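New to this. Explain the following:
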Amino acid sequence: MNSAASKIILKSPREIELMRRAGGLVYEILCEIDSHVRPGVTTAFLNEIAEGMIRDAGAAALFKGVVNPQAKRPFPASICSSVNEEVVHGIPNERPLLEGDIVSIDCGVRLDGYCGDAARTCAVGSVSDRARDLMAATRTALDIAIREIRPGRRWSEIASQMQKHVEGCGFGVVREFVGHGIGREMHEEPKIPNYHDRSERGGDFELAAGMTLAIEPMVTAGGADVKYGDKEGWAVVTKDRSLAAHYEHDVAVTVSGVTVLSDGS
């Protein structure tokens, strides 16, 4: 067993159900935000929706106050709102969304001591065929992962299928940012890439019942390279300024396969 795998915290059925409650709240927040995404709406307003729902549920926002060595200040909001070429970690602001934009909303909460973390990309009005294809390919990559998870499989086998699908659609898989284990903390072992690189075999792991994972493919319409793209040091953008999409679910590996914790079920 590699060192990362040895640090993976397996969860009990009780803990998994507590995580389902946290994931369920995130699902409700994302659905409510999605219903408000339209031209003219600001991401600051979308953040206000999330903050109100988190507060009313007696939960805490996972992202607010997180420190990043690259950034000038702790993250100031309850959601990440990443527009067009922004991949992840976009800060909500007062710029109105425009017809044809796409916006990725990532939300995390802690409820009763356990974390939920999920994301989806939303179309703002009518978007280009390229944008819709990008969103569909990214969502399908997540669906592939969920379909293929079961105890005894190595993650690299699943990541290879995700990568093959995305690149077969003509898109790029971001490598600098990956998924992660989740539980009492937002980021736990293991790291969960959305691609497979044979040179990184040491980071591979075998799936086992009780693992709880946040799987989050980040896909670009152009090259896979990214960089920090704002003065705050938070938003990550595609280097070639191509569109990006991001979907995420929390899952628990079960004896028979997998259960999704952040889909409202």
